[in-house]
Automatic annotation (TrEMBL):
Highest taxon in the source lineage: Eukaryota
Gene source species: Helobdella robusta
Name of protein: PH domain-containing protein
SUPFAM superfamilies: PH domain-like
The encoding gene: 20216429
Domain PH: from-to ranges: 30-132
Length: 138
């Protein structure tokens, strides 16, 4: 059912128990989800804020420098996403890393960080629709 042309991402996420009206750091529509997430630098020495967009029409998860979406930094096609999961971070790490999650692709793993544990769960649920959609089609 995730691959149906009439699939409504926003309705699906709300029916999953998430109250999107209370969230200012994420916008979800019928076919898109967008909002800020942090990514780790190459050696985990710093985090960088990026604007992320999941586009069900293009079947991509993209990052941009900011919300104007003019300067694309990375594009992950749905077919490259293998798994999305909460990353176990050591307890001595910064508070921000407590809300990290990982997107495992066919070529690498991307560690992303949400602004709260609730937003992390929303993003994971959104990204899981992309994985399910891809695997259901094969």
């Amino acid at each position: 059912p995730i691959r149906k042309s009439d699939f409504n991402l926003k309705a699906f996420i709300e029916q999953s128990g998430h109250n999107l009206s209370l969230q200012t750091n994420i916008k979800v529509t019928k076919a898109h989800a967008m909002g800020p997430l942090y990514k780790t630098s190459k050696k985990l020495k710093m985090v960088i804020k990026r604007w992320y967009v999941l586009d069900r029409n293009k079947e991509t998860f993209s990052s941009y420098r900011d919300e104007t979406c003019r300067n694309v930094k990375d594009v992950i096609p749905f077919q490259r996403i293998e798994n999305v999961y909460i990353d176990d971070v050591p307890t001595n790490c910064t508070k921000l890393l407590k809300w990290s999650f990982c997107i495992k692709t066919t070529t690498s793993a991307h560690l992303l960080i949400a602004a709260s544990s609730y937003l992390r769960q929303i993003w994971i649920d959104i990204l899981m629709t992309a994985i399910t959609g891809y695997h259901d089609s094969s």
